Hints:
Layout: H1 3-8, H2 20-34, E1 42-43, H3 45-52, H4 56-69, E2 72-75, E3 79-82, H5 87-108, H6 114-132, H7 136-153, H8 157-166, H9 171-178, H10 183-188, H11 190-198, H12 202-217
Amino acid sequence: MNQTETAERQPTRVLGRRVLRDEVRDLIMEDILSGKLQPGDRIVETRIAKELGTSQTPVREALRDLELLGFVVTSAFRGATVRRISKEDWAEIYPIRAALEGVAASSAATRLTNEDLAGLRNLIDTMRAASLRGDKQTTIEADIEFHSRIISASGNRLLKQFWQSLRLATTTFLTVSVTHRPLEELAERHTVVLDALASRDGAAAEAAMRSHILDLAAWPFSEPASERKP
Length: 230
């Protein structure tokens, strides 16, 4: 085998140490929201697996997640194709997430330790620093971790299963992609939630979390890059 053939067999993108299913899902989602994958485009499992240097299994699992989130549709004849994301889709996602995370925040407010609160504060600092340097990926990852810790702190096993199975945290990618708000604002909005949690007032924490999520639905909606006309 010559050097050219060897180079062609190398994956064009390298995955990190996160769960493969999650990372494959996030990469495909980014391609959809950035316009690299257009509505109606087929997503070929074998091609994605080769590009990422992985097996087809995590790609197939990632596509199932994306179908649940409404980013792709599958059919027996065409496989997975990119679905057009509408303003109506955008409006429907956030009430569901707000309801679940509001309940989680209410329970977590009386269960979070001072160490837990310090960890959440550090994540906000991470979001701030990343947003100032324009690092969207790190900002989103810290955002997702912030919400994930509150879900876990609620102690509600069933709620956690619902939240994880629906992959609701990944709507953060949609927020960043279809609003005109700067990353810095996205980061700062978490301080109100943290203050409410620190007050140990369950009702205040639930209200803060619901507002934090529902307000996103009112942000200016712009068509994702995959839907914009040249």
